[in-house]
Amino acid sequence: MMNIRLTRRLKDGTAYIKPLDPDCGSCDQRKPQCRRHYKMIANRLAELEESEEKYKLALFMVIRNSKVMPQGLRLGRSMTEINRMAVQTMSRDIEMIDYDNAAKSFEEGIK
Questions:
Q1: By residue range, what is the domain housing residue 66?
Q2: I need a labelling partner for 110 at 20 to 30 A (CA). Which of 79, 80, 82, 96 fits?
Q3: What's the pLDDT tens digit per position in 45-69?
Q4: What is the total count of domains within the chain?
């Protein structure tokens, strides 16, 4: 079975795929042309998208439960308002992250 790796995803959603099968030179990095590997690549991308969705929801829950909900409850806000504010806070936090430094810190934490 061939392993594949998503090397990067552009903002427009384009996925660059690198087949890890050295004998298969027929798969283009942007568009799989090898019918044998197309379904496997499509399944792997679906798994990655599902994983991405789970991380997004986990981030939302952490921000909502630790940052927004305590303040919202003190102010007497409804859960809808708290959830809306958590999404806004999450979006703002994502824009402020220095991803290069975050990746270095994450790698240090793994070691």
A1: 4-110
A2: 96
A3: 888 889 999 999 999 999 999 989 9
A4: 1
